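does this look right to u?? beta-D-galactopyranose version
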Amino acid sequence: MLFARPKFLFLAAIAVMVLAVFGYACGDDDDEGEETPTATGATGTPAGLTGDLEIFSWWTTGGEAAGLQALFDLYPDVCPGDVEIVNATVAGGAGFNARQVLTTRMLGGDPPGSFQVHMGHELTDTWVTTDYMEPLDFLYEQEGWADIFPQGVLDIVSYEDKPYSVPVNIHRANVLWYNKAVFEENNLEPPATFDEFFEVADALETAGVTPLALGDNGIWASVHLMETVLLGSLGGDGYKGLWTGETDWNSAEVTAALDNFDKMLDYVNDDHTSLSWDQANDLVIQGDAGMTIMGDWADADYKAKNFEDFGWAPPPGTNGMYQALSDTFGLPKDAPNPDAVKCWLKLVGTKDGQEAFNTLKGSICARDDCDKTLFDPYLQSAMDDWKSDEIVPSLAHGAAASQGWVEEINDAATAFITDRDVGAFQGRLADACVSAEVCE
Ligand code: GAL
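got this back:
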């Protein structure tokens, strides 16, 4: 069976990430295949939809909630009738809490209408191979999406040749955000290398500013920081090899990467374990911290908080690399009100829906035909980078490794944040690769 063994899944994920670049770069820019939804249901939408439509996500912060609301606002235009949308959110960045609630509901036979799930291993290994999702080939055919989404994206949402979710965006994990005024006052430039990072961090500390804001009340935020450090230290091939077994988790290179991570943690705010990612971002906004390393949902957080004096750069060592993830929605088997859900999925994939959502969410469209001029300068730069950079999968956001593997890494990171024992941490990370059946 295709994708039956985890090892093949990881290899496949890497292959499709590479394809994603190729698919995007060669993407067809025309609108062919995209039909305009009409009130008469010309694209197959039954007119006169009714009932509740429960949309489950973890989008509760400023930019996240604003993007989601923009989709809700468009729903009646695309899906005529009288549907009541139930906004079922479970707060907590990266779905750290939401995933547990979702698992209980799915296993208990109580699925929401549709739910937010990361493209790649998080979707496929958890819900598709286990037969909890409906295939969406009918919708992709109806909407002509084979010509609209990059081939690599089509591949990664598919299992045994059928797509199982609709990607609403592409996010970038490896972004270093900084407070421009703080940097100017201290004559600093965003650091491109680890040496430069530690010089800048020392200068900020001397100036009485927290160098690096971190909010890991959900451990994923530390793992997020670590994944950028692994990428910056090991390079694209070395980093990708971690998820295929080609890079040795016990190697000196990984030790050096973890040493960099360990040293970075010396420069974070003392109260990091009690803050969320967006509260950490507030430290940058207030000028209490100089930098934070966070995905580009931080761009939307600045927008929602009317803060404009920020700059961005690739975290140390990651220039030319795009650590990618994507939020998608699917149709669970036995979802209540499936017609309303199918129309939601159609909306999520439309050009209008993706433009409305992503301009507020701090992400770029998964479609390759969105109007660039609608997007802010950061997102325009991300659109360019997505076409030219090397694409690598994010760990903390479900693209690089199965949920079980990520959870083991999260547990190891929780211990490391407290004991700061690099040797023990590396050993646990190496063991986690073996448990995932990717390393021997
Ligand atoms: C990611 C998700 C983003 C953003 C972020 C912080 O996992 O893909 O859309 O919401 O978490 O919550």
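Residues 1-43 have pLDDT under 50 and may be disordered. idk if thats expected tbh
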